[in-house]
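Researcher: We plan to redesign the surface later, but first we want a full-length starting point. Tokens attached.
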């Protein structure tokens, strides 16, 4: 099979839209029926955006904050 797709034309990795607010430590978090979720936006190379929601699989707020911070730090790297 011949690769007809130019590697230079492939979209770059998505950029995360992450705001850190000292005043709102729950930013990017919400509680859905007792389970904490992470919510953020990815800006894609084709000038579109994608809203991403991931379950943090915890009912504990402090654990959710730690998991959010760890996930966002790993995703931004």
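Model: Full-length starting sequence:
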């Amino acid at each position: 099979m011949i690769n007809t797709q130019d590697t230079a034309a492939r979209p770059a990795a998505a950029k995360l839209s992450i705001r850190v607010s000292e005043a709102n430590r729950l930013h990017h978090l919400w509680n859905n029926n007792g389970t904490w979720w992470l919510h953020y936006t990815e800006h894609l190379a084709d000038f579109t955006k994608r809203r991403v929601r991931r379950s943090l699989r915890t009912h504990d707020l402090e654990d959710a904050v730690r998991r959010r911070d760890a996930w966002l730090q790993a995703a931004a790297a």
